[in-house]
Automatic annotation (TrEMBL):
Family statement: Belongs to the eIF-5A family.
Domain Translation initiation factor 5A C-terminal: 86-156
Gene3D superfamilies in UniProt: 2.30.30.30, Nucleic acid-binding proteins
InterPro entries with a match to the protein in the record: IF5A-like, IF5A-like_N, IF5A_C, NA-bd_OB-fold, Rib_uL2_dom2, Trans_elong_IF5A_hypusine_site, Translation_prot_SH3-like_sf
Organism: Cyanidium caldarium
Protein name: Eukaryotic translation initiation factor 5A
GO molecular function: ribosome binding; RNA binding; translation elongation factor activity
Amino acid sequence: MADVHDLEVEAAGDAGASQTVPIQAGSVKKGTHVVLKGFPCKVVDVSTSKTGKHGHAKANIVGLDIFTGKKYEDVSPTSHTLQQPVVTRAEYQLIDVDGENFCTLMDEKGDTREDLKLDPDNDEVHAKIKQDFGAGKSLLLVVVKAMGQEKIMQSKELNE
């Protein structure tokens, strides 16, 4: 039998962190994030109906997909549990944009990544980033991550 000290444990980088956490439908408020129809959404409207014949008040939740802006709606009893996406926001300095619109980004520790792509044809924010970077401006990009997806959401000009 192997000694306890001889065991090796390999863990993923996220240490098994969940991409969503439970939230009760009755506690969802405007401005919070919730998963609607399988998409991470920011809630723009919530209304509740009175208790019906079968004894459950219903929450009518309307949200916009945080990545595409598409509108989703869901109706759920206020006592039921919904999923709330874990949304993280990070800032990176833009170092380069290559010919295929992949960005070289650097975090505050000096680590770089090259896996995010701009879509200047379909996204006004991305078109402005490409234009500003081409004009020689130093930019700080805001990247939002939720449910395994990441997207560059905005840029700020660095004042050096």
